[in-house]
Write a structure and sequence with these properties.
With about 400 residues, this protein is of the alpha/beta class. Helices cover about 25% and strands about 20% of the residues. Helix 2 (about 90-100) packs across helix 3 and helix 3 crosses helix 4.
Length: about 400
């Protein structure tokens, strides 16, 4: 059994865990829940003697972890699946742990079979996927056949088959009379796996009860009632009868009625007495996730906001309204294209005049042949002379204009 009494841990001005007391009993899977930053990992590290409490104490089987004789044979834990030397194979990693704890070598192959890693036992762990690393970490926790097991996010990275395997493994270990303490953020898995829950928020205890009681105490149960469609008078008669009997009736978006304050048999009797036919009368109980969100809503440190996207599509000051590096959107509908696929008059960096059409290109449009001015072009004010190309270095040979452009 794990027992914490007045457990407190401070890191400077930050209080990670405050006056936390609970018991994790054998023979059941106990889920350890809480928002990010609530102190779950810190608590598990104090249980395993990795962090020293500022105040209070936590014991395993009546002893602090550091005073347990041959602790790896009594307590197994998975806190970080990546805490493995990447150059070692799975078998070598487990063999080192076995030798340090006086565990027979044959046990290594037994746990490799339990977690399904026999076929990759000789491969280096640095090539393992996240799910394979989780399996190796679980194998290390099971190596000493301990009576107390702690798992932090044991299904992280596992596929559906692996998740089902972990779920059944936890239940099997608890059925053997072991103490199983599991931290997870997957409410759906905790609902299927855990028998008891310990919930903390901002380092303090919020709940210590069975899963069934936790859901019941932190949810509003109600009944869904549906009358025949197309008969609004039936719906009105039932609403009136339920309200007079002390029930609270709220309409649902799908046309059903949400009824609270009355048990299902009473709702059925009232409908029968009012001569109202029912198409649906079903109980609704909140899920573990709903109950958890309701309880921890005030203990969440990180809250997201709606993405307003304000000004996201507005052009920055001094920028043209259309995209493109030079103030145009290539290929935009209605955008006229000149020689080389650029709008007429476009001057690219490194050029002192618009780029010439590619060799072998069709004659330039807009009524102009290459090298000739239009036949009847209107008079236009003289344009500023083009910027002169940079002078070549003194040691460079004379270059033609095209050579100068190519050099750029």
């Amino acid at each position: 059994m794990i027992e914490a009494v007045g457990l407190t841990k401070r890191y400077g001005a930050k209080t990670a865990v405050y006056n936390l007391s609970f018991q994790v009993r054998p023979g059941a899977v106990t889920g350890f829940l809480g928002p990010n930053g609530s102190g779950k990992s810190t608590t598990m590290r104090m249980i395993l003697g990795l962090d020293e409490p500022t105040a209070g104490q936590v014991t395993v089987g009546g002893y602090p972890f550091r005073r347990l004789p041959n602790a790896p044979r009594q307590v197994g834990a998975l806190l970080d699946a990546k805490a493995v030397h990447g150059g070692r194979s799975a078998r070598q990693h487990l063999m080192c742990l076995a030798q340090l704890s006086g565990i027979p070598a044959r046990r290594v192959d037994e746990v490799l079979g339990v977690v399904g890693l026999q076929s990759v036992a000789g491969k280096r762990s640095k090539g393992f996927s996240l799910g394979m690393g989780q399996r190796l970490g679980i194998a290390a926790a099971l190596l000493g056949d301990p009576q107390v097991l702690l798992f932090d996010e044991p299904v992280n990275g596992l596929d559906p088959e692996g998740i089902l395997w972990v779920r059944n493994l936890m239940k099997q270990l608890a059925s053997e009379g072991r103490t199983v303490f599991v931290s997870s953020h997957l409410m759906s898995e905790m609902a299927l796996t855990a028998d008891h829950l310990i919930v903390i928020g901002r380092g303090q205890l919020l709940a210590d009860m069975s899963v069934r009681d936790f859901i019941s105490y932190n949810s509003a149960d109600f009944a869904r009632v549906r009358t025949p469609e197309g008969e609004p008078e039936q719906r009105e008669k039932l609403t009136s009868a339920l309200s007079e009997a002390g029930g609270q009736v709220l309409p649902e978006q799908d046309g059903a009625l949400r009824v609270t304050g009355l048990p299902l048999p009473r709702i059925s009797d009232l409908a029968h007495g009012a001569d109202v036919r029912l198409w649906e009368l079903s109980p609704h109980q909140a899920s573990l996730e709903e109950a958890y969100m309701r309880m921890t809503s005030g203990a969440v440190d990180y809250r997201s906001t709606a993405d307003q996207r304000a000004g996201l599509m507005e052009p920055a000051p001094g920028m043209p309204p259309q995209g493109g590096a030079y103030g145009y959107a290539p290929g935009a509908p209605g955008q006229p294209m000149g020689p080389g696929g650029f709008p007429p008059g476009t001057v690219l960096p490194g050029y002192a005049e618009p780029p010439a059409a590619p060799q072998g290109h069709a004659p330039a449009p807009y009524g102009q042949s290459q090298g000739h001015a239009p036949a009847a072009a209107p008079a236009a004010p003289p344009a500023a002379p083009p910027a002169a190309p940079a002078a070549p270095p003194a040691s460079a040979p004379d270059m033609t204009k095209r050579d100068s452009e190519d050099a750029r």
